[in-house]
Amino acid sequence: ADKLAAFQARIDADGRIEPQDWMPEAYRRTLIRQISQHAHSEVVGMLPEGNWITRAPSLKRKAILLAKVQDEGGHGLYLYSAAETLGVTRAELIEQLLSGRAKYSSIFNYPTLNWADVGVIGWLVDGAAIMNQIPLCRCSYGPYARAMIRICKEESFHQRQGYELLLTMMRGTPEQRQMVQDAVNRWWWKCLAMFGPPDSASVHSEQSMRWGIKRISNDELRQKFVDATVPQAEVLGVTLPDPKLKWNPERGHYDFGEIDWDEFWQTVNGHGPCNKERLGTRIKAHRDGAWVREGALAHARKQRERAHKQAA
Amino acid sequence: ADKLAAFQARIDADGRIEPQDWMPEAYRRTLIRQISQHAHSEVVGMLPEGNWITRAPSLKRKAILLAKVQDEGGHGLYLYSAAETLGVTRAELIEQLLSGRAKYSSIFNYPTLNWADVGVIGWLVDGAAIMNQIPLCRCSYGPYARAMIRICKEESFHQRQGYELLLTMMRGTPEQRQMVQDAVNRWWWKCLAMFGPPDSASVHSEQSMRWGIKRISNDELRQKFVDATVPQAEVLGVTLPDPKLKWNPERGHYDFGEIDWDEFWQTVNGHGPCNKERLGTRIKAHRDGAWVREGALAHARKQRERAHKQAA
Amino acid sequence: MSAVATDTVVIDYLLHLGDNALVLAQRNSQWCGVGPVLEEDLALTNQTLDLLGQARLLYQEAARLQGGDATEDTLAYFRDAPAFRNYVLLELPASLPRVGYAQGDMDWGVTLARNFLYSALMVPLWEALQTSAHAPLAAIAAKSLKEARYHLRHASEWVVRLGDGTEESHQRMQAAFDHLMPYTQEFWTDSALEHAAVQAGVGVAPVALKPVWDATVDATLEEATLHRPSAEGYVPQGKTGLHSEHLSYLLAEMQCVARAHPGAVW
Amino acid sequence: MSAVATDTVVIDYLLHLGDNALVLAQRNSQWCGVGPVLEEDLALTNQTLDLLGQARLLYQEAARLQGGDATEDTLAYFRDAPAFRNYVLLELPASLPRVGYAQGDMDWGVTLARNFLYSALMVPLWEALQTSAHAPLAAIAAKSLKEARYHLRHASEWVVRLGDGTEESHQRMQAAFDHLMPYTQEFWTDSALEHAAVQAGVGVAPVALKPVWDATVDATLEEATLHRPSAEGYVPQGKTGLHSEHLSYLLAEMQCVARAHPGAVW
Questions:
Q1: Chain A residues within an 8 Å CB radius of C229
Q2: CB of B135 within 8 Å of any CB in chain D?
Q3: What InterPro entries does its record include (chains C, D) (predicted)?
Q4: Do C266 and B57 count as a contact with CB atoms less than 8 A apart?
Q5: Which residues is A17 bridged to in the sheet?
Q6: pLDDT in tens, A120-129
Q7: What ipTM describes this predicted complex?
Q8: Is the pTM of this model over 0.90?
C-alpha cells in the first residue's frame, strides 16, 4: 500500500515511472496492452500505404512514400522495445497479433483505392493519430513517453508531406482533384472514429486518466481534430462529407454529424472491408519468413559453439 | 521374322499399323518418344502465348488467343491419348517431362516480348510446325496419323489468324509496325531451326523413313518453309533478318544464310533463355494441383465404395 | 422517364453485367496453362471464353446505346476502377485473403468456389432476364443462360468432389467458402443502378433470386460435406463503383498494352 | 567524337546505370511491409531508398543532357521495356524460375542472393567510375560507392548466416544462387553502349572488374558453405534492350498511374 501510494504520488506530481520502478500489475498490463496495440498498428499500417509504393506516379513521391512506410516500421520497433521493458517479449506480442487476440488500429482495415489516399492518410489519419498521441508524450511511463516524443515528431513530418501531396494534386488536372475528393470522402468519417467511442460510452478512460496514461478525453480530442482540420480542408479546396459540419460561434467550435458507430464496432470486431486481408498478409509474411529467422538463429548458435571450442 | 516382314510390307504398301497389331519394340519406343515429345510441346507451348492473354489489347484478340491456347492444350490431350495406345500412361509421360528426361520443342524456350509475338508465333512457329506435321498425317501408325489430321487442320486456322493479326498491326501506327518487325527479327532464325539439324547431321532420320514415321527430310522441309514464307513476308511488309536471303533462279528456291547451330543445341540441352522458367512453371503447376487430383480420386473411390455397399 | 434517361439506366445495367463477366474472365484466364490437370485447365478456359463472349455482347449493346466513339474495347480498356460496376467477389485474387501487393500462389479451390457461387446466381438471373423489356438484353440472357447452367453444373460437381475428397481438399474448399461467402452479401443489396433497371422493366431485383440461390448453395455444400459459413460483416459495394484494392491491379495489367497505344487498331 | 555523339554515349550509359538501380529498387520495394523480420524489412527498404536515390541522380543528369522536356520522371515512366537498359538479373521476380504470368510466393533467398551478386559488382564499378571523365557521373559514383559498400556488407553477412544456418536455409540459398548465377554472365559481356562509354573515358570495361567480383563471390560463398554454381548457357542482353518476359509486367505496374494521367504533376 505504501508502494502504491508512492507510485500514485509520483504520477500526480507529473513524474515518470521507469522500468525498474515498482508499479501495480494492472498498470503494467494496461500499458502492455496499449503499447503493443500501438506497435501492431504501426506494422499493420505499413500495408495500406505499401499498396501504392510500386505504383507511385513520380520517383520523388515513391521515395517519400517508401521512407514514410519505413518510418512506420521503425515506430513499430521502438514501441515493441518500450513494451519489452514491461517484461514481455516481442515474439509473444506478435503471436497475440497473429492469433487475433491483440488488436490494432481499426483505421487500417479500410482499403487504399487511389493515389490520393496516400496523401489523405498523411493528412487525416496521421493528423488524427498525432492528436491522440501528443498527450502520450507526457504519459506517466517513461519509455513510452520518450518513444512517443520521437514518433510524434516524425508523424508531424508525414502529415505535412501528405498535405503537400494533396495541394499539388489539387493544383493539377480535374481527374487529380476528383481523386483527392474521392479519397477525402472515404476517409473523413473513419478518421473521426479513430478517437474512439464517445466519452459517455468509453470503458477504460477513467482509470487511465488516474494513471497518467490518458490525459484528454476522446470527445475533446475529436473536437480539437475537427477544429484544426476544417480550415485546412478549405485551403485545400475539398469538401468534407458532412452536411452538418458548421461553425458554432457559441461553442467556439465546429459542430459535426453523427458517426456510424455500428460500422465502427463491426470493423473493430473483425468484419471491416480489409481485416482478413491485413491479418492474412501478416500471418503469411511471418510464416514465409520462418526459415530466415530460424536460419539466422542456427547460424548464431553455430558461431557461439565455434567460439566456445576455440576458447576451450 | 514373319511378323516383322508382314509389318514392313504393310508399311511399304502405305497401310496403317493399329494399336492391336504386332510391331517391333523399337518402332513402339520411337513412336512413344516422338508422340509424347509432341504432346509435351503442345502443353509447354501454352506458356509463351499464355503470357499475353491477360494483356491482349482488344477483347476480340483476347478471345482468339484464349481459344488458341486452349486448342494447344487439346492437342496435348489427343496426343497423350495416342501415346497411351502404345502401352504407356499419361502419368508416366508427365513424370518424364517434369524430371527433364523427356524433351519438348525447343522453340518454346524463347520469350514472348511484345503483343506482336502472338501473331508471329501463329504465322511462323505454327507455320513451321504445320510444314513438319503435314507428312505425319500419313504416318504409318494409325492413331498418330489421325490425331495429326485434326491437329493440322486447327493449326492452319491458327496460322491464318496469326497472319491476320500481323496484317492489322502493319496497317496501324509506326509503333505497331515496329513491334511486328521486332518480333519477326527475334523469331525468324529460331523457326528455321525448328526443322532440326541438317540432313548430314541427323541421327534418327533413316530408320524413321523406313518405318513410315518420317517422310521428308529436315532440309527439304526447311526449304519448303522458306519458299512459302518469303512471299508472305513481302505482302506483310516486314524484312526477314537474313542478308543472304535471295531467290536462286537456278535452284528454283530461295537461298538463305547459316543457322546458329551452337545456340540451337545449347537451348535443346537446357540452356536457352526460358528453359528453366518453362519447366519450373510446369513443375509448380503439377505440384500445386496435386491436392485437386488426389481429392478427385479419393471422391471417386468413396463413390465406388458407396455404390458397392448399396449393391451388397 | 425520357428515352435518354432510360438509355442511361440500361447502359449502366449492361455495364454491371458486362463488368462481372469480364473481370471474372480475367481472373480465370490467369489459370490458362497452369491448371491442376489438363482437362480442367481446358474446361475452365471454355468457361472463360463464355464469359468473355457475354462481356462482349453486353458491351457492344452498351456501346451502341452510348453512341459516339464507344466500342466494346473503349468500355473494357479505357475506364478506370471506379467506373467498373462488377461485384467485388469477382475481382479478388484466386487466393485466401491477402493484400493486393503481397504476391503468392494461386489457389484452385478459391477459383472453384467463386465460380460456383457466381454461376449459382447467374442461372436464375439470366433466366429472369430472358423477359427483360430491353429486347437485346433478353436475347443475350437466353444465350448466356445455357452457358451459366453448364458452369454451375461443372462447378457443383467439383465442389462435391473436392469437398468430399481427401482431408486436405475438404479443408481447402471449406477455407475457400469461408473466405468468399461474406462477399456474396453484395448480391442481395439493392443499388440505385439495379433499382432503376427494375423500375424500367429492364433488370431484375436481385433479392428475389436469393431463395433459389440459397437452395442451390445449401444442396451442393451439403452433398460436399461442407459447412455453409455465415455471410456477415462488411457488405461490398463494387456495383456502385467502390471496389477492393485488387481491381486497380487487375485493370493495370489488362489495359497496359491498349493504353500504351491509344487510337491503335488491333 | 562530336559533342552531340558524346552526349548520346553518356546518356545511354547513365540510363543503363539508372535503369539497374530503378528496376532493382522496384523489385525490392515489393517486400516493404512483408519481410521475414521487421529489422530486415527496414534494412532492405533502406537499400531500396539508396537505389532509388541513385536512379534519380542518374536520370536527372541524363535528362539534363537530353534537354527538352525530359525529366527523371519521363525517363522512368514513359519508356517501354525495349528502351530499358538494365541487366535481366534485376528484373526477375523474387522467386525460383517460373514464367511471368504464373503468380507465386516471393522468396527472400532470391532477393538476398541477387542483392549480393549485384552489389558485389557495383562496389568495384562505382569505385572505378569515381574517375569518370564525365564529372557529374564521378560525383554520383563517389556517393553511391558508400551505399554499395554497405549493401554488399549487409548482403554478405546474410548470405553467410543463411548459407551456414539450418539445412532448409542452406538449400534455399543454394537454389537461389543456382537460379541466378547464369544471369551474371551479362555483367562481363561487352556491349556497344559500354564500349563507346569506355572509349569516351566515361565508363568502365566491365570485364576488368571480374577478378574482384570473383574473389568477393568465392570468399562469401565459401564462408557460407555454399557451392558456387557454374554460369553457363544463354547470356542475357538486357543492357542492349533485349529483356525477359518479366520486365513488361514490372513496368506496367510501375507506370500505370503516371500513364493514366499524362501531363499531370505529382
A1: none
A2: no
A3: Aromatic_CoA_ox/epox, Ferritin-like, Ferritin-like_SF, PaaA_PaaC, PaaC
A4: yes
A5: A141
A6: 999 999 999 9
A7: 0.96
A8: yes
